[in-house]
User: Fold this.
Amino acid sequence: RKEVEQDPGPFNVPEGATVAFNCTYSNSASQSFFWYRQDCRKEPKLLMSVYSSGNEDGRFTAQLNRASQYISLLIRDSKLSDSATYLCVVNIPFGNEKLTFGTGTRLTIIP
Amino acid sequence: NAGVTQTPKFQVLKTGQSMTLQCAQDMNHNSMYWYRQDPGMGLRLIYYSASEGTTDKGEVPNGYNVSRLNKREFSLRLESAAPSQTSVYFCASSWGHGYTFGSGTRLTVV
Assistant:
């Protein structure tokens, strides 16, 4: 089983719609969770951290379910500029600051 | 503030050639990393350095060597390039779990 699993997509979503991605992780000892965004042919960039209580940043909402070991990202009122690959990222327990990256979910917003 | 700077951006090598990918960060981070990214495989850790003077193997270290020259610089060397090393290579640095990536090196081995 992969340490972090994501649906690769692609998700093709009309502009203005709401879209949600899920991600599952295998190591129950993981404590830190993130969503990174990667544009085509660019480097990954931190989108947001994911906290146990859930957190929101503008149109983006991230949630963590420790019991089921999954993380979600919700994008509301999607914009063309949201088109990217979204990487689910989990820390490696006892691994200093090392992270495990999912393979990503590709999102395309359609005008 | 440049963040993480990688050079070169593109490189084509012949099988058996050697080269060094350079990475430097100006954020005073202790930890630095080298990843490769291949289609369908995601980012895989090659080597990392938790602090100046220390390096450790990651998930896919075979065929690579690294040097943490000082706190700022972390280089990746391919001693004898193979077609299987065709990939996009990213350097990153971190403080805590906040990673900053360089813009990547697209390497093709023919």
In short: The mean pLDDT of chain A is 93. The radius of gyration of chain A is 13 Å. Chain A is about 0% helix and 55% strand. The first strand of chain A starts at residue 4 and ends at 6.
